[in-house]
1-acyl-sn-glycerol-3-phosphate acyltransferase
Amino acid sequence: MLIFRLARLVLHMFYGMAVCAVVFPWIGTAARNGHILRWSRRLLKICNVSVEVAPGGVEPLGHAMVVANHVSWLDIFVIDALYPCRFVAKAEIRDWPLAGWLVDKAGTVFIARGNRRDLRHIFKGLVHSLQAGERVAFFPEGTTAPQGTVLPFHANLFEAAVDAKVMVQPFALSYVDRDGAPHPAVEFLGEMTFAQSVVAILGGKPVRARLHSLPAIDADGAHRRELAQAAHDAIAGALGVAPRQY
């Protein structure tokens, strides 16, 4: 079963690469988002991951800066399966086999750690994308964290929402098993490689991914640190985690 799922996943990756190479250069943002949504849903189905919208959430804005807690490489595809976004991610993801190329061609913006010049260039691009009406998303923890934990948020990229005068939309992500307990296979931590994580998920029990869309926060006139704290507290509250001050 594991080998069969792995083969299906690889084929699906190659299909996505073909679409990115042949179709994406000729279509607009809305059509791209449709392809990304359908492809992400199929990917999750192959990985035995079902996606549900947590009750009590709000309808996400079509134009906003989306921020979410970070648990797994699955996070990007769970969000894209519901509300396609243009993501900001760490540069290391570009080196992942197949998946790195795909997320790059899907419009992901990569940030190299410690590169301030790169960050300034990317920041200007994010402001432009937000002002152009795109939904841009990133994980302000800067790394993955165990379920039941929300690390402090880095505030730098929140400045793009302030400059673009757009709302900040927090998403709370969690992964549970059939009994509603945190799923042990999805966490992507420490020295675990992308390949090891893929095998753990494909060979594990079914996963239910929950996305809780929280009320948007107005960034117009706000300070980036205030926005980061407000988004952190909203996500921590939705996940039942004690908020952190910073």
About this structure: The chain is about 40% helix and 15% strand. Residues 50 and 208 are 5 Å apart (CA to CA). The two ends are 46 Å apart (CA to CA).
